[in-house]
Write the structure tokens for this entry.
Amino acid sequence: MFTPELIAKLEKSRLAAVLTIENPDNAIPVARALLDGGVSVIELAFRTPQAAEAIQRIRENVPEITIGAGTVLNPQQVKDAAAVGAAFGVAPGCNPRTLRAAQDCRLPFAPGVATPTDIEIALEHRCNVLKFFPAETSGGLAHLNNIATPFAHLGLRYFPLGGINAGNLAMYLQSPLVACVGGSWLAKPDVVQKHDWETIRRNAAEAMTIVRSIQPT
Ligand code: 3PG
């Protein structure tokens, strides 16, 4: 379960950067570039063997960032994420073994949901923040509104990812269902590998200008 304090951090940034890090030496400069641009939530994907170390370095050196572990696919990765102090875990899908491990480790966990069945599985494991994935190809905000309606009385919050960019993030953020959106476009792996921190800072700043222009509905 995400605590109210953790949800408040998502709501404050409203934007999360999905990162894949090959070289842990890149973790801190990327995090600082995102923070300079105004983005204070990172989902760092367990898609490289260096992910846990990168999370630890960001947690220890850039404390203004709320750092979560992404692409957490099994109980061992839940333990690894918890061991390095990830603030939360995220998965593309809704694997009950992974969700049980997150409960055991007390790691706030947002499983991926795209159907009402997925949401019911997440509820069984006391999840209250759900990654809506893949947001755009599942049907976008219209689909999220449909699948969320039967659960509206439960106060679930959603974290849409998958196909989000500067062109469509405002639409999602205008929905009261949505705590935060995220995407990999802010800091693509090739830009990270080139150490192009200025592009990452500018991507974040441009997206945050859009975020700040959104009027609450
Ligand atoms: C992911 O887990 O890969 C994220 O949802 C990012 O999706 P994107 O690359 O479409 O932003």
